[in-house]
Design a protein that fits this description.
The protein has 322 residues and is α+β, with helices and mostly antiparallel strands. Among the domains are: 94 residues, T-fold, CATH 1.10.3980.10; 114 residues, Roll (T-fold), CATH 3.10.520. The chain is built from nine helices and 17 strands. Strands 1-2-6-7-10-15-16-17 form an eight-stranded antiparallel sheet, covered by helices on one side. α2 packs antiparallel against α7 and α8 crosses α9. It is globular.
Length: 322
């Protein structure tokens, strides 16, 4: 015979084992479409968590945007060539990480690439072919070694004029990681977070696939075909491809993936996808691996990173580096 307490226990157990709710939401952040897919028991809780995640994404955008005049990042670009600029702890830590990435990649990732992106027309447009003299002039204002960070005073200073930090190679990955943290704080354990499809994080696993969230990597030569598939379970995936943004001039193709050391777009690889535990790492490292090539990647990648190389547009050229 069931008591009232026993009946209540059975009811709660039944509710706990009930069907999961799927909730999806998208929003425009950083000039791109960010999207969420969440699973949980309570739709209202999922809605609240999604709103909290997007609030966090917009907060990050307001912090590091190159397009919002009131952003801290914008103030650094305007003033750090004239004086030491005091910044928040969060921005100082992000800039410190950016300089570390720049150093570890031997300058293939360079947070000061902004002047080159502008002269090549990739700052707000689809690109244009500059004169060699313009490239040389822009290179005078590029170089992470000229960013002076004072941890005690928490300031940033440039020792060259006309320098400009570019968050384009790190911002989305950082925002995705902060969104994931917001979802966890709000009780979500199963989620797929995507920043325009180029940087993705899979939290936990969806109810129908214990291996994780299934994500496809497109074949560069035919974007309707799949080159590989990945199951993300508390892992991230980021892809950099020459097909994403490019232009043609004088019989050549120029992509937006810039080698900051030469001042010219990188050549020789079609796409690189990186799987890592953190999205900031997968987004950042996709560029140096693309620029520096397979041999450098094999010699320098951490053991817990997986890298998928497509060295031309055919599926025969696409292989994993474990």
């Amino acid at each position: 015979m069931l008591t009232a307490a026993g009946l209540m226990f059975c009811f709660l157990a039944s509710a706990a084992s009930g069907p999961l709710v799927r909730f999806e939401l998208s929003d425009e952040v950083m000039g791109s479409t960010f999207s969420l897919v969440l699973y949980g028991k309570d739709r209202a809780q999922l809605q609240s968590a999604a709103r909290a995640a997007f609030d966090e994404a917009h907060r990050i955008d307001a912090l590091i945007s190159n397009y919002q005049p009131a952003s801290e990042w914008g103030e650094v670009n305007r003033s750090a060539g004239l004086r030491a600029v005091h910044v928040s702890t969060e921005l100082f830590n992000l800039l410190s990480a950016s300089v570390r990435y720049s150093r570890e990649s031997e300058g293939a990732f360079d947070i000061t690439v902004g002047p080159l992106m502008k002269v090549w027309g990739f700052y707000k447009g689809e690109g244009m072919l500059p004169r060699s003299a313009e490239v040389a002039k822009a290179l005078e204002s590029v170089g992470y070694k000229h960013v002076r960070l004072d941890a005690t005073a928490r300031t940033v200073h440039f020792d060259r004029s006309n320098m400009e930090l570019d968050p384009g190679g790190i911002g989305k990955g950082y925002a995705v990681d902060r969104m994931v943290d917001a979802l966890k704080r709000n009780g979500v354990s199963m989620a797929l977070v995507s920043a325009s499809g180029s940087s993705i994080y899979g939290m936990g696993a969806p109810p129908d696939e214990p291996r994780g969230w299934r994500v496809t990597i497109r074949l560069p030569g035919d974007l309707h075909r799949t080159a590989a598939e990945v199951f993300l379970k508390d892992m991230s995936l980021s892809t950099s491809g020459s097909y994403e943004k490019f232009f043609r001039a004088d019989g050549r193709t120029y992509s937006h993936i810039m080698d900051p050391r030469t001042g010219y777009p990188a050549q020789g690889v079609t796409s690189v996808s990186v799987v890592t535990p953190r999205t900031i790492d997968s987004e950042v490292w996709a560029k140096p691996y693309f620029i520096n090539g397979r041999a450098w990647t094999v010699a320098n990648k951490p053991k817990d990173f997986r890298v998928f190389f497509c060295e031309d547009s055919s599926d025969q050229s696409c292989t994993w580096i474990q």
